[in-house]
## 1
Amino acid sequence: MRTPRRRLASTCIGTVAAGLLVTGAALSAPQKDRSGHDDIAMGAYLDYGPPGVARIPYLSNWLGGKEIRVGHTYLPGDQWAGIEGRVSFLADWAGWRLARPGRMFVLNVPMQERNEERVSDSEVARLIRAGARGEYDLHFRRLAERLVSLGVPDTVIVLGWEMNGVTYTHRCAPDPENWKVYWKRIVNAMRSVPGQRFKFDFAPNRGPDAIGWTRCYPGDDVVDVIGMDSYDQAPGRTFEDQVTQPYGLQQHVDFAEAHGKEISYPEWGLFRHGDNPEYVRRMLQWIEVHKPLYHTITDYCPHGVWQCKQNPDSAKVFREALTPEKAGPVIPTPVIPTPVIPTPVIPTPVVPTPVIPTPQIPTPQIPTPQIPIPTPWPVSPTPEATPEVTPSPVVPTPEPTLPAPPSPLVPSPDVPSPTPSPVPSPVAPSPLVPKPEPTPASPAAPTTTPRPTPKPTPKPDTPPTNSKQWCVPLNFGEWLSKLVGKQSVCVNVDWGKGSGYWPF
């Protein structure tokens, strides 16, 4: 640009900006977004010091909430102290940069003091050669240390901007070769500071100007970004002219691509052609297509669109293009729950194994009857209770002192007495021992059931003395007696005088 002191006229700019804020021009309603600039870092030069930082949120509101990601300012080039970064406003910009991730701080750095004092070409050539010898390295090393200490070691350094023109003392035309050497010394001095991550932006003015800017290019090893300042002015009346002219917008894009560098537009805006909305529209379309690392419009009169009321048509185009499209109400998609059909659980039938009880056939216990030996005086046995579960018949045992019963004898006929009498027929006594009928035994009673006390058996009638028949009752116990009834064993005995048993 050919406006030497446009960046330091802060007093007038601040007054104009304050008036705009009071009138509410900065907070106008947003319009519909017509381009896809959301992914490109955008900013504006609003003021070099703290007012520039303070105006950023107002510009964002004017643009319908668009995020301003680039903060852009300039170091004063009147003395080396300013070039070294010994200015208070640098801390304000560093604080803004660190307040949110994703922001970018762009800093224009002069290469010489008295940078806008119209120094002659011969004096510029002498200063360039001094810089190439390293006489000014210390100043730039101090600047790097200052930026690192402020926490902005990733600052984009636009070093010696518009070097192809005639405005600044750091211009290239008086000695292009030594100028490139001087650029390299500055970059290497700043890169020598520990912790730095600077990007160096080589940004000529669009067009041939005083010298073709490609002749000033210092080399890929000391350049990270190739930028271009492009205002609506000659050379070129139309935007198409600005694209196709030598050293114009198209050559800028092609040169950067050939060197594998990103592009940028640190300065652009209206100028010689006044309020030109077509220029603004075409420039924004160009930026959208070529995706620069960043772009910043110079926003004060006559270049600006927000802080300059004399460009209303261009301001409208700029605002419509960059205001984010307002999203409509979010209609939630109805969530239709998938019906959960439970899988029927069919239980496996459990077929119980039949338990066939083993039949227990009780073995019938047939008591063996014992034939008691008859005694003249039988003694009725006293029944005793037995602890067994199954009662057994108790057969009374005759006393052993008595002789065993004689076998049945046939008595000899008596000699008839003188008195005739009828002769009795001999009677053969035979013991009648009834055989007990087998009776099925009842199942054994549970061991836990107490055995009933047997009732005493009534004593049989005592047979008469010297009787020929003697009967002994059989006692089988209460249980068996109920089954077989009362039984007796009878024996016929001949106690006559000829029997051998007669004691007299």
## 2
Amino acid sequence: MKDLTQGSIPRHLINMAIPIAIGLFVQTLYFLVDLYFVGQLGDTALAGVSAAGNANLIIIALTQILNVGTATLVSHAVGRKDKKDANLIFNQSILLASGLAILTLIVGYGCGQYYMQTLSNDAQIVEAGTTYLYWFLPNMALQFSIVAMAAALRGTGIVKPVMLVQMLSVLINILLAPVLIAGWGTGYPLGVAGAGMASSIAVVIGVIILLWYFFRLEHYVSVNLSLWRPDWASWKRLLSIGFPAGAEFFLMFLYMAVIYWTIQQFGASAQAGFGLGSRVMQALFLPAMALAFSAPAVAGQNFGARLPNRVEQTFKWTALLSCLVMAILTAICLWQAPALISSFSDDIAVLTIASGFLSLICWNFIPTGLIFTCSGMFQGLGNTWPALLSSATRLLSFALPAIWLSGQGDFYIEQIWYLSIATVTMQSLLSLYLLRGQMYRRLQFD
């Protein structure tokens, strides 16, 4: 356990953000490695895998419930020096993770093909996406356990073990991808099925190593089967904080689904280009996301210790550092957008769409950094409902005009990117306003 209620706030944020960023980056490599090798199979396979990968946003939404709820409650318990409550929350989170993993496999295998049919009317894209999804489902199911363990450690101020495990998992995935997708060394290429299989095998190994760490090396929070009986009070606490955050990510899934639906009339190249551009954009976001993921632990421990000034300083430093990182990334995209995506496909139409997407959507980066910062602070304060309200407002302000525009005779794809820039900017302003009110109310300690 690391005490974040003492010492320099920016040093705590940066010390946590660096390993978190590395962990997030290697996690994103799961998709980038798959996209690289799948991109060699053609735009149909690339569009199918990109669309199927969008289903992972549903899993992120559900894991976010555990992630935010566990990290917040554990950090508050650490701030209060309440080790017993921290362990209870952790074990109840693992119990919930096990149930959600089973549910993911049942729903995924039962509804995967129908899901793909809602995203594309191209039979080959549907087939490629469904095949990839079926083999990728074990990876998605095991994410719940990984997130629960990582969140508990992050709440105690520890992030490096998870980063090391993620790095090892991605290395395994990188080694397996060319063997299973392209048939290197075996002569039996499995195509998109191999892409999903490589990721699933890698994450199985990662879960085994993390469990070993908790059983042998971790002492503040640990796996205790006697605490695995459902504790409804703990579940209520986890869900009251985690559910809005999970719902927020589900709205992001709907946002992405609206884009796929509106641009399908432009063909497989447009969907593949958007899928490629959005994955690269997510990779670019990792430094700012790492800062935002560090903020709840720092703010949460200080909130639990009733130190309002340090909570306010956490927001100021997180916002400043996030905006600085996002400004640099904006400049890079404006200058070198084609170079960022040129390695992932040799299809000119796909590259043109992806490059155009990045060169316009980069104007979203600084507002997005502020949204990340506010979301992290809402988590640290223990109230994530304002973040959900902010995201719901953005979805409505984007989806309705986007659907209307897609039905117009002069509709062109860049209109979607311009609409996104406008709505994300409005969301950032609303998030700042809501956070100001929450900090005023919740930091009035007796």
